Amino acid sequence: MGRFDLVIFDCDGVILDSREANRAYYNTILERFGRRLMNDKELSFVHMHTAEESVEYLFKDDIAIQKDALIYARTLDYTYFLDYLTVEPGIEDAIRSVRPPLLTAVFTNRSTTMSKIIKIFGLDRWFDIVVCALDVSSPKPDPEGMFKILDILGVEKDRTVYIGDSVIDEIVAHRAGIPLIAYKNNRLKAMFHVEHFEQIKSILSD
Asked: Of all helices (H) and strands (E), which one includes residue 69?
C-alpha cells in the first residue's frame, strides 16, 4: 500500500445507511411524549449526533419532558429498528481488498446501540478497533476518539485517512489533522470526494 497505513470510518452514512432507522427510532420517542414527527432539519441533526445530544435537541423547548425522554430513550430497544439498516454497497469488498496491510477502524457517535450493530452485522470481521461515544469523554467533533485509535494501533496521523459524510466529520478530521475522504457529500472540504466504495477502494490501494 502507498500513502496510508490506517483508514478510520464513520458509521452512520458511511458503513451503514441508517437514516430511516434513525427516523423511526427518534419519531418513536417523540410520539411517546405526544410530539410531532421530525422534520428534515431535525433528522439531519440526529443523524450526526449522539443519542443524548439528539434527544436534548428534539426536546430543547421543554426541559422537564426532556429528562423523561432521555430516560425513555435509554430503555428503548434499538433492536426493533435494525430492519431499517442497510450496509452501504461495496464496503465489504473494499475492506477485504486493502486489509491487510491496511488497518481499519471505526469512530462513531453511536453509543449504547453500537455493540448490537457490531454483533448483527459482524463488523468485528472488518475492523481492528471500534471506538464509539461510550469509549471517550467527548464525542465528535472532539478528536479524542481519533487520537485513541492512533495510540492503540500505533499509527501516525499523517499515515491515516478518515472517511465521513457530515460536517461533524469534516470538523473532527480537521481538528485531528487527518485528511478526509468525503462520502456522498461534495459540500465538505476534503482531500477526496467519492460517491461509492469502488472509488474509495482505488484511493486506498494507490
From this structure: helix 63-75
Q: What is the pTM of this model?
A: 0.82
Quote the pLDDT of residue 11. Answer: 93
Distance in angstroms (rounded) separating the CA atoms of residues 66 and 205: 47
Burial class (CB in 10 A: 0-12, 13-18, 19+), 137: exposed
Is the domain of 133 the same as that of 153?
Answer: yes
- Any idea what the CATH number is for the domain that residue 166 is in? 3.40.50.1000
Give Cα 117 distance to the centre of its chain: 12
Q: How far apart are CA 65 and CA 74, in angstroms?
A: 14
Same domain, 72 and 114: no
What's the CA gap between 85 and 80, in Å, rounded?
A: 11
User: For the chain, what is the domain count?
Assistant: 2
How far is Cα 70 from Cα 75, in angstroms, rounded to an integer? 9
Domain that holds residue 38: 19-83
Please state the rounded mean pLDDT for residues 173-177.
97
Between CA 5 and CA 161 the distance in angstroms is 9
Q: Which residues of 66-96 are buried (b: 16+ CB within 10 A; e: fewer)?
A: beebeeebeebebeebbebbeebeebbebbe
The string of pLDDT tens digits covering residues 132-151 is 999 999 999 999 999 999 99
**Are 46 and 107 members of one domain?**
no
- CA gap 44, 51 in Å, rounded: 13
Residue 141: cis peptide before it, omega within 30 degrees of 0: yes
